[in-house]
Amino acid sequence: MAAVKEKIIRPKASRWELGLKEVWDYRELLYFLTLKQIQTKYKQTAIGVGWAVLQPMLTTIIFAVIFYEVAGLSTGGVKPIPFLYAGLMLWTFFSTGLNGASMSLITNVAMVTKVYFPRILLPLSLVIAALLDYAIAWGLFFGIVLLTGESLSVLLPLTIIPLVLTFLLSCGLSFLMSAMAAKYRDVQYIVPFFITILLYATPVLYPSSWVQNESLRWILPLNPLAGIMSAQRAFIFDSVLDIGMFLVSIPLTMVVFFLGLLYFKAYERRLADVI
């Protein structure tokens, strides 16, 4: 009886190749993984995708009362509720994708160790799934605008730019964190803490003009989300765009994306051994 040769299936891309073509080749699997993430997220919940609206709305109301009613702070001419919600819906997309994707390899360990497919599809599918919540949030946002009488900018279609940048930033950090979490389980505790700190370090709940300290004004552009959030509100409300901060955020976002992608691809070959 002839001996059966063991066949080892490894990633097709080399250590330093990005593997984007392979992602395209497995696009149907990516679709089904994304659909599964959406179904799992809202399974056995009373209001389902309604949480995509309720969560940022409640957060908006709470911070509007604290910052703009009690503390009496200024939004720079925009009504507090639409001002906050415009930032929070983009922030929620970023944080939801990153928080879920960072542990995507651990929660799908059976797939990772037994079946070959581009592992990067797991964190990527979670970031894509978060786009549904973002799309739903826009529906509520237009309702808020109608109720408050806030005016919108003719540049509104340009909000696709901050969305694409946020998507790339979330992907880059998700690739990095998910690969690190495969070896270091501490990541599951670090990511929520990192997201909380980043929320207050980013002009999500306040306009960037609030930051008056010269040292902090110099540091703020190093956070790519700061420039992205400035552009989001400028394109929605026709408020002042910090063009310098926005232009800095673009190359910073691309650096984070490609570094995260390269780290994931370099580590992918060892995932089944260490996870």
**First-last Cα distance:** 36 Å
Gyration radius, rounded: 21 Å
Helix fraction, binned, reads: 55-70%
- Biggest pleated-sheet summary: none
Please work out how many helical segments DSSP would assign: 13
Strand content: under 5%
Going by helix content, strand content and strand pairing, the class is: mainly alpha
Poorly predicted ranges (pLDDT <50, ≥5 residues)?
Answer: none
Overall mean pLDDT stands at 85
Choose one word for the global shape.
globular
Question: Secondary-structure element sequence?
Answer: HHHHHHHHHHHHH
Counting DSSP E segments of at least 2 residues, the number of strands comes to: 0
Please give the domain count: 1
Description:
This protein has one domain. 69% of the residues lie in helices and 0% in strands. It has 13 helices and no strands. It has helices at residues 20-25, 27-42, 51-70, 80-101, 104-107, 109-114, 121-148, 160-183, 187-201, 214-219, 224-237, 243-268, 271-274. α2 crosses α7 (121-148). It is globular and about 55 Å long. The two termini are 36 Å apart.
